[in-house]
Structure prediction request, 364 residues.
Amino acid sequence: MSRATLRVVILGLSVTSSWGNGHATTYRSLVRGLSARGHDVLFLERDLPWYAENRDQPNPPGCRVGLYSSLRELRERYEDDVRGADLVIVGSYVPEGAALGAWVTEIAEGVTAFYDIDTPVTLSYLERGGADYLSPELIPRYRLYLSFTGGPILEVLERRYGAAAARPLYCAVDPEVYYPEAVEPKWELGYMGTYSDDRQPALESLLFGVARERPDARFVVVGPQYPETIVWPGNVERIVHLSPAEHRVFYNSQHFTLNLTRARMVEAGYSPSVRLFEAAACGTPIITDPWEGLECFFEPGSEILVARSAAEVANYLWELPEEERVEIGRRARARVLAAHTSAHRAAELESYVREVQVGEPALS
Prediction:
């Protein structure tokens, strides 16, 4: 693998549709970063009906896309691509991913990697014997275990499950897509996230609670699957779905944006959401719940605001001087541009690939 250009095959949940998943935006960012560095990327995606009906980017820039309807079709059409690639990545939540991974690690002649976009959730499955997309026996067969979560969980993967090399590959943002834009602010505080039982109490407290105290202010929640039983304050606008193309305007239309973290991600720590990087790239000040490792990504109080109660959120919204609000957003954007873009992730991935190749120098 001495060539400067890598042939990369990614078998992920979806890159063509962001409907109901956070994987597509992550893969789109990564493939654009890899392509910009001169690599050839083929993305193979299971042709699932709910994604087929909602393909907001059927031909995303940075990669070629191949759709397959079954593992049999995948093997028949793409075996040569998988076998001859310099790097083959299998993502979490890919249908029949464990069987697919067994096939990939058997035939691929290049580096094989598993990319876990939900590492704490995957570990909970492994403790119960495994998941459809990954079994404990399969982990040591991958040369790399790429994880959305960093910190101590990487050592767990290596020591308990035999991962050959567990490395962080966090989500990232494409600065050509997310940037400050002069639009009229519509909301004091907004939140984007699919409904989950473990995040709902925080949403009720940190957004609904503040909204009820200030009925004259405007708030917004974007995301699907919220139960009909939820009582929404009258000044909280409800949007079921926004396409990624609408995210930049959404963030720029808020004075502050709220970040809430799933319970397992809080427990593991070191699990930044892609929404953090997207909002920060837009220069929108972020209010987040606390979690271990946050300071590795943003400096609390300077680049990001931490809230444990509705009172703290209200204090930020109504008491923080406007100059400081703007400056927090500016500093967060600078941090993202310095460390968390698609170009950074592509370079990190290159370094990991070279790391597992004895004697191979890193790409420049």
In short: The chain has 13 helices and 13 strands. Residues 322-339 form the longest helix (18 residues).
